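Reviewer comment 2.1 asked that we show a complete input and output for one of the modelled complexes. We chose the zinc ion case, as it is the one discussed in the main text.
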Amino acid sequence: MAVKREDYLDWADYFMAVAFLSAQRSKDPRTQVGACIVNDENKIVGIGYNGMPRGCSDEALPWQRKNDDWLETKIPYVCHAEMNAVMNKNCASVKGCTIYVALFPCNECTKVIMQSGIKEVVYMSDTKHDKPSMVASRRLLDAVGIPYRQHIPKQSKVTIDFGALEDELDSTSTR
Ligand SMILES: O=c1[nH]c(=O)n([C@H]2C[C@H](O)[C@@H](COP(=O)(O)O)O2)cc1CO
Ligand SMILES: [Zn+2]
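Response of the prediction step:
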């Protein structure tokens, strides 16, 4: 009798992988961030990545990070992954949900997370840990007791191979 496959993706790696896959949609030349919101039934209810607001051409607005003129940077225009994931929700509310994010959320996203009722933050990268924005995020989350923890992946890499089923058919084909 065939036995169960053991090297399947566990839930947390799956949700973080969805966040990272979503990030690949981002046009930001420097930092691509993705977020995935999950309810208490392990159902995905929102996905987002950082991008320009709906209807804005990705070519019409600046993508540079620094410029003497702040209006010529992406900062005032780009919508962060977390905010997009909340706005993209496919259910009435994300209250009680967990958000998986590729990068620890900035203070603006943390406010959106808090106001939406999300109850837990799971992040992968913390490369901006010492920026005032992240310090403010932790202060806010600590103030209300929303837990945040770094994801420790069981699998360091998740590969998507569009040819996987063809290979499988080839190798198992007996006819
Ligand atoms: O929480 C976040 N979510 C998010 O989507 N982003 C996006 C905004 C920008 O497009 C990019 C950050 O760009 P940069 O690393 O050049 O500052 O990542 C950035 C953060 C944290 O800074
Ligand atoms: Zn943000």
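The chain has one domain: 11-150. We note this here for comparison with the apo prediction described in Section 3.2.
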